[in-house]
Amino acid sequence: MKLDELTKGVFKQNPIFYLMLGLCPVLAVSTRVDNALGMGLCVFFVLVGSNVIISLFKHWIPSQVRIPCFIVVIASFVTLVDLIMHGYAPELHERLGIYLPLIVVNCIILGRAEAFASRKSVFHSFLDGVGMSIGFTLGIVGIAICRETLSTGKIAIFDCTIVPTFTQSPSVMMTLPPGAFLTIAVIMAMIKYKDIRKEGR
Amino acid sequence: MENLLVIAVGAIFVNNFVLSRFLGLCPFFGVSRKTSGAIGMGLAVIFVMTCASAITWPIYTYLLRPFNIEFMKIVIFILVIATFVQLIEMVIRRYKPDLYGVLGIYLPLITTNCAVMGVALLNVEEGYSFIGSVVNGFSAGIGFTLALLLMSGIRERLEFANVPKSFQDLPIAFVSAALLALAFMAFSGMRL
């Protein structure tokens, strides 16, 4: 089923909460919702691009040197995104900082190339890339929404306030590193609770 | 001339790679179940990070900058680091089999560890000198090992704790990491 390839990345095999892949940028960038959206967009472009290219060339890549080949393809896409962001969204590029080039060592992308794109057809790899990156974006934006509301008391995407200020004494800790670990711990515990309930029934 | 002590203390405590920069989280949660594994992983990371800093600095300064191809740094750095880790693995296996037994299984994992790539990129971004870069790489590795050891100690104790069912294993590890990060926040008040 083709739709399956698309939806499995969003729910059943969400890269962040179920596969536990690519956590570093998730925790570092999720301080604000607009940063998280930017990161999700970059991962979308790199993941879909590298999945398609790798599955196109899968018959020509010898299996002994496949990992270096994958890395070169991924690194080229990351360089492309880095340059485009630098040119058209310099402010976002500045805020994502070192985490933008670090997409190249993100385990989601190499993991999908190795486990999926190097075996399946181009169209399936494309769908898998789209689904996985939507799942990633949903996860990172979800965490960012929790952290931004708790730390500033409001949500503002690109200077336009979406949720107005509702508290005068927000908890600054949520922007800082401990808040990131705590948020993802609580979300993971909630998912686990749901799974345990489902099994028990 | 930058102050080497400031770089070292900064990389170990103030900007700890795991707890405040969020680099290298996969091994941090993956290998921290047992203290013995944590020591092996920590030693391998210190070694690779120091060498990676020492190798990428001359490549950037004498190869990429004269030809104005700094934008190639992502591709070049990842290839150099991946090749280098493979090379170390082969050399250690050939000449120091007992050391290979300790570090061997962790070395391939390190290639995709973002901390190694991160330290190479940070050195370039901060504009450190050669000595500064090596010191930064070494102390970042020490900082990583420190966090990993603390975490593995906590997780070994957690085995005996009565944790709610939905918090078992990873979620409680993240809560412990949050408390650890909170403790490390105290260092950010230090004036260097």
Features of the shown structure:
heterodimer; A: 201 residues; mainly alpha; 68% helix; globular; B: 192 residues; 9 helices; 73% helix
Description:
The complex is a heterodimer of chains A (201) and B (192). Chain A is mainly α and 201 residues long. Chain A has one domain (2-147). Chain A has helices spanning 2-10, 23-29, 33-56, 66-88, 90-96, 107-117, 122-152, 177-200; strands spanning 155-157, 160-163. Chain A has a two-stranded antiparallel ribbon. With 192 residues, chain B is mainly alpha-helical. Chain B has one domain (4-187). In chain B, 73% of the residues lie in helices and 0% in strands. Chain B has nine helices and no strands. Chain B has helices at residues 4-14, 25-30, 35-64, 73-95, 97-103, 107-111, 114-126, 130-158, 170-185. The A-B interface holds A 20-21, 23-25, 27-28, 67-68, 71-72, 75-76, 78-79, 82-83, 98, 101-102, 104-107, 110, 173, 176-182, 184-186, 188-190, 192-193, 196 and B 19-26, 29, 71-75, 78-79, 82, 112-114, 117-118, 121-122, 125, 164-168, 170-175, 177-179, 181-182, 184-185.
List the helices and strands and how they pair.
The complex is a heterodimer of chains A (201) and B (192).
Chain A: H1 2-10, H2 23-29, H3 33-56, H4 66-88, H5 90-96, H6 107-117, H7 122-152, E1 155-157, E2 160-163, H8 177-200
Antiparallel strand pairs in A: 1-2
Helix pairs in contact in A: 1-7, 3-4, 3-6, 3-7, 4-5, 4-6
Chain B: H1 4-14, H2 25-30, H3 35-64, H4 73-95, H5 97-103, H6 107-111, H7 114-126, H8 130-158, H9 170-185
- Mean of residue pLDDT of chain A? 84
Rg of chain A, nearest Å: 18 Å
Largest sheet of chain A: 2 strands, antiparallel
In sequence order, what are the helices and strands of chain A, one letter per element?
HHHHHHHEEH
Helix content of chain A: 55-70%
Q: Structural class per helix/strand content of chain A?
A: mainly alpha
Strand arrangement, largest sheet of chain A? 1-2
Low-confidence stretches of chain B: none
Residue windows where pLDDT falls under 50 for at least 5 positions of chain A? none
Approximate strand percentage of chain A: under 5%
Residue-averaged pLDDT of chain B, rounded? Answer: 85
Main β sheet profile of chain B:
none
Q: Tell me the number of structural domains of chain B.
A: 1
Order of helices and strands of chain B: HHHHHHHHH
Oligomer: heterodimer
Percent strand of chain B equals: under 5%
Largest interface: pair, residues per side: A-B, 42 and 43 residues
